[in-house]
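Predict structure. Chain length: 392.
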Amino acid sequence: MSRILVAMSGGVDSSVAAALIARQGHEAVGVWMRLHDVADSYSEFKKSCCSLDAADDARRVAAQLGIPFYVMNLEREFDAGVLQPFLDAYLDGRTPSPCVDCNTYVKFGALLGRARHLYDCEAVATGHYARRVVAADGSARLARAVDTDKDQTYFLYGLRQDQLEHARFPLGELTKPEVRAIARELDLITADKPESQEICFVPGGDYREALRERAGWTETPGPIIDGDDGERVGEHRGAAAYTVGQRQGLGVALGAPRYVSRIDPLTNTIQLGRREDLETRVFGVERASFVGGAAPVGADGGAFRAEVRIRHRAQPIAATVRPATDDEPDRGGNWIVETDTPVWAAAPGQAAVFYDGDVVLGGGRISRPDAATGSDATAIARMEALELRASA
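Prediction complete.
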């Protein structure tokens, strides 16, 4: 049996993951990650998995299971790999996916590296609802969880083979009610603990507050433009306060409903459109990665068929994914996704994840169909540097 580090957030899922690792006969080592200064707060942010309350719960569960427990400071890695890209994305008019970055660069990047080199652990186990399947050729595949309602593979598409080889997902074959039942059977203190629904470093739920406090963002009013004729129809409170697809809080009345269709941070302009204006069957994807190490090879060489999901709980849509050609600079990105049926509000910055049935092929970030601005270029350069560091 192996020595396995378990990332314990103080919630029921990671608690049961630790219990199952120990039950399988492995030597479990519990670790709670200190990622940012929300960890300095107790009762004010009880729902956050990163509060001191959560750390206390994780420690108490480890004691119940009789396994060693440590606190690991990964604030620097979290800041570079998750927090700064999150802030950069909003300031650049994009919608970030911080959980993807956290899994790729922190949990199965920095944490995995320390687990193997400092704690002599073979793998890192988490409470994710996902499955790791070893193929006949010995390669590892990432597959959707048995509990499709809880499946979290959308946030794990960025894992490489060397990361997936040392990843363990004990909950992949279980449903959420089964996990709760195991926790009650073991009388774990987290058995009936509510789930955290917020971004861990935005425990109040308002990302704009994080922009103000962590990036110095100020609400600078600018024009709201109707996409039909370019007419100025209102004034917004700062471009970073909006996301593509947003309808509420626009402060305009134009008869038919309007949604944010485009955000231009350079001119501080918000463009609106009707619902049908936000439908598309073609969009670009940048910073793509593939779990198998290389893109699947389709029948005609470069292109391949897949199902694509552009939001965590969105219905997968059948699509063709192909490399971008030199004459398509307006699309942005290195890959072009052509869906069989339209998708709605494909927001730049969101993850687009490719599936073959239950198996995750890979994914990337939806690109904006124009040149990258300075802040976006900086974010991409930072991510590329982290990727190189993680693969070294």
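Summary: Confidence is low (pLDDT under 50) at residues 371-392.
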